[in-house]
Amino acid sequence: MKSLVLERKDELSLRDFPIEKDEEVLGPRDVRIKLHTVGICGSDVHYYTHGRIGPFVVEAPMILGHEASGTVIETGSEVTTLKEGDRVCMEPGIPDPNSKATRLGMYNVDPAVRFWATPPVHGILRPTCVHPEAFTFKLPDAVSFAEAAMVEPLAVGVHAATKAKIKPGDIAVVLGAGPIGLVTALSALAGGCARVYVSDLSDKKLQIAQSLSPAIIAVNAAKETVGERVKADTDGWGADVLFEATGSPKAAAQIFEPLAPGGCVVLIGGQSEPISYDAGAAMVREARVENIFRYAHVFPRCVAMLASGAIDVKPLITRTFDFDESVKAFEIAASAPPADVKMQIELPQ
Ligand SMILES: [Zn+2]
């Protein structure tokens, strides 16, 4: 089927691609889905421009894309919660249902997890796919296909906010105003934060952050230290929660500066090399440090919050391309236009 294929580093093509037979076999608890909208993720772009992310190396042509929504077109014999015609979004990582991690409820850290568009597993920038019912979520009418394709990145923010154990009225800081930083800020507000300080070096990105909510305070890290700003606004106490969403070792070196005593830091941004942080600054605050890897158990919560309006991701979707323009879309995404947050691709219906 016609698919967006990463042939090798720096080379994409939209071409007919033979999917392995067993990937297309509909099991009793699977559904077949006609893809509708697929978001372009930073990880897709990174595989395109670098050919690898950490230990995952593109060694054979691979279909990209993992942020997706679509329509169920066929159901396996034992499927009970979905039917043909249902609009759905899909969680892209499938763990081994019998693994120890899965049985302990931490299926996202199952070493055997198969995640779309992570070599050697193909992604879903293609007309159809087969997916387990258990990782496919029905959409209410109020949630569009475009919003539903935002559930995957949103899930990272909601998982991070959950790990932080936010309490109503907390003050939060988010370092980084990229797509993940912004969905984290929205998740922190939905979780009950009174204010969220978002810092970045790009004024354009900060303008977008600021436009999302009057409770978001944009801080340009080139002009102002976020720690000093938060301290000034909180009588010297600091923020209850800090989310690190830049993946920059320089930002990570200062994560405890804005933090209040007893506060929590959640590390979200991927670090390709070992980094150091100020353990002494963590100690005097009795800071709690959490790490997240993707997400677990949050897709239905994300769908529910989009449906109720508790979270609005529409302002983050800044450009939409036709499937035929996929290669161009990735070239544009790779150039990292400062005014774009999320670019999406729509498949022909
Ligand atoms: Zn993603």
Automatic annotation (TrEMBL):
InterPro entries attached to this UniProt entry: ADH-like_C (IPR013149), ADH-like_N (IPR013154), ADH_Zn_CS (IPR002328), ER (IPR020843), GroES-like_sf (IPR011032), NAD(P)-bd_dom_sf (IPR036291), SDH-like (IPR045306)
Keyword Oxidoreductase part of the UniProt annotation: yes
Cofactor: Zn(2+)
GO molecular function: oxidoreductase activity, acting on the CH-OH group of donors, NAD or NADP as acceptor; zinc ion binding
Alphabetical keyword list: Metal-binding, Oxidoreductase, Zinc
Residues of the Enoyl reductase (ER) domain: 10-336
Coiled-coil zones: none
Family listed: Belongs to the zinc-containing alcohol dehydrogenase family.
Name of the molecule in the record: D-xylulose reductase
Organism (species): Fulvimarina manganoxydans
